[in-house]
Amino acid sequence: MDSNAVKTYLLELQELIVDRLEQVDGKKFIRDKWTRATGSGGIGKGEGISCIIEEGNVLERGGVAFSHVQGDKMPASATAHRPELAGCSWEAMGVSLVMHPRNPYAPTSHANVRMFMAHKPDGDKVFWFGGGMDLTPYYGFEEDAVHFHQICKNSLDPFGDDLHAKYKKWCDEYFYLKHRNEQRGVGGIFFDDLNAPGFEASFAIQQSVGDHYLSAYVPLLEKRMNTPYGERERDFQLYRRGRYVEFNLVVDRGTIFGLQSNGRTESILLSMPPLVKWRYDWQPEAGTPEAELYDTFLKPRDWV
Question: Which residues form the active site (predicted)?
């Protein structure tokens, strides 16, 4: 169980993704390196690199964050399903990213790959991997959803015929706003608590998911980023971004874990869109492209 190999991979993945998105945008990400020697709420020390772009040519806001944190007592969110690990020391590392394009026809995307390891008093280690990627369009295009899901499937096919269907369903169930009775987007793949195949096999699945993100998302971004749009499309984009904020603050396990464990707030909330709107009891007009998003794309379906 070599956590150093995982850390090396994650740092290389972060730089690869940032470099490619800089090529698309034409503007550089800010690379904010941080360290913390001591902390509270269970965290002893941590380090990371938060790469952020704001007011870019294509990306209104985007972030790719690496973090490696360690603590002497696991936070409540991490032991909710594993009470036997309460009180154990731990370490967590991962890369998490969100891209919010300016153009309403270009979808938002999210991806995350992470590893958690608990250290028992007897010296035994308990690990699990998690991650995935998902797509949140504001205006739906069937060919975009098919492309994204096909790449997700390609990332998992080498590890078993059943994985894609399982992780696709998990994604649909996870990225769901119960208080709205809505999907967040068109889904993708999501997995957590992965350790049954063993450390090396679980790590290989995580690597494949991370390695496929750019080929899943960048072609869609490049296809849609220059589509003409007006005030109506921009207004709807900002309204739908509100759902993104609601999910991250109310549902997302990573956000909740980070805040509960007294993590670095700026990095935890890196995923937030820069501009958002809310309206009281608003519904799209029937027959419009906005209504089509709800009727066709915000419903789980087999895209591939």
Answer: 110
pLDDT at 252 over 90: no
* b (16+ CB within 10 A) / e for 292-304: ebeeebbeeeebe
Decide: 107 and 141 in contact? Cβ < 8 Å: no
Q: Is 110 annotated as a binding residue?
A: yes
Is 147 assigned to a binding site?
A: no
295 closest CA partner among 177, 140, 145, 104: 140
Most distant CA pair in the chain: distance in Å?
63
Annotated ligand binding at 271? The verdict is no
Q: How confident is the model at residue 77 (pLDDT cuts 50, 70, 90)?
A: low
Q: Do the beta carbons of residue 226 and residue 105 sit within 8 Å? A: no
pTM value is: 0.92
110 is catalytic: yes
185-243 pLDDT, tens per residue?
999 999 999 999 999 999 999 999 999 999 999 999 999 999 999 999 999 999 999 99
Instruction: For residue 81, say whether it is annotated as part of any ligand binding site.
Output: no
Do residues 235 and 141 touch, judged by C-beta distance below 8 A?
no
Q: Do residues 214 and 157 touch, judged by C-beta distance below 8 A?
A: no
Q: Pick one of 3.40.1500.10, 3.40.50.970, 3.30.1490.20, 3.40.50.2020 as the CATH number of 3-297.
A: 3.40.1500.10
What's CA 171's distance to the chain center, in Å?
11
- Asked whether the beta carbons of 132 and 209 are under 8 A apart, the reply is yes
Alpha-carbon distance values, 235 to 59, 78, 108, 242 (Å): 17, 38, 15, 11
Catalytic option among 110, 147, 164, 212: 110
Q: What angle do CA 287, 105, 267 make, to 5 degrees?
A: 125
Q: Where are the chain's structural domains?
A: 3-297
Provide the 3-class DSSP secondary structure of residue 221: helix
How many CB atoms within 10 Å of residue 185? 27
The annotation status of 179 as a binding-site residue, yes or no, is: yes
Determine contact, residues 3/115, Cβ cutoff 8 Å. Answer: yes
